[in-house]
Amino acid sequence: MPHPLIPHLERLVTPLAEASGLALQGVEIQAHRLPLTLVIQIRHADGRDINLDECAAFSGVLGEVVEASELMTQAYVLEVSSPGIGEELLDDRDFHSFRGFPVAVRFRDGKGLETTREGLLLERDEEHLQLNLHGRISRIPRPDVISVRLVTPATD
Q1: DSSP E strands: which ranges in the chain?
Q2: What is the CATH code for 92-150?
Q3: In the chain, which segments carry CATH 3.30.300?
Q4: Band (155; pLDDT cuts 50, 70, 90)
Q5: What stretches of 93-144 adopt beta strand conformation (E)?
Q6: What confidence score (pLDDT) does residue 128 get?
Q7: CATH class of the domain at 6-81
Q8: What share of the chain is helix, strand, coil (3-state, %, to 5)?
Q9: Alpha-carbon gap, residue 92 to 100, rounded angstroms
Q10: Per-residue pLDDT tens over the stretch 6-49
Q11: Could you give the CA distance from residue 104 to residue 107 in angstroms, rounded to a whole number?
Q12: Residue 27 to residue 49: CA distance in whole angstroms
């Protein structure tokens, strides 16, 4: 069940983002963390990726607005990021932006068992997700893919 403050925060953040040439991509409240964490995801309104300096600048302005609104009645941490900066790759843009990066792919193998494979992301097309596994290409059928996440490369 979504947190009851999310719609209020969306109404608060959306005009502020638009005034800055940005678009709100998502609001998440992580109530299981102490202190509570408010995660705001933004992108440029024209679809361009946002960088960390821009996230930090928007975070400062947003923090003041959230405080002034008095919506948050308990201690919280504000995190402003871009969907492209997060760990899970979701759309074609993410897969294009992170070609060559180390990823962990959760998928169902030929026997229907869930498994994970780590490698360098090569490509995702209509039929397959392709990984470089120590110099060998592995093709995983897209319908079998459960999730793809950026990972820290393993050191041998």
Answers
A1: 22-30, 36-44, 76-81, 102-108, 114-124, 128-133, 136-141, 145-150
A2: 2.30.30.100
A3: 6-81
A4: low
A5: 102-108, 114-124, 128-133, 136-141
A6: 96
A7: alpha beta
A8: 25, 40, 35
A9: 15
A10: 999 999 999 999 999 999 989 999 888 888 899 999 999 987 87
A11: 10
A12: 17
Task: In whole angstroms, give the CA distance from residue 47 to residue 6.
Answer: 23
pLDDT at 141: 96
Q: List, for residues 95-105, the tens digit of each pLDDT value.
A: 988 899 999 99
Give the C-alpha separation, 88 to 151, whole Å: 9
Other CB atoms within a 10 A radius of the CB of residue 144 amount to: 17
Rounded-to-integer distance, Cα 23 and Cα 17, Å: 6
Residue with tokens 């705001």: 40
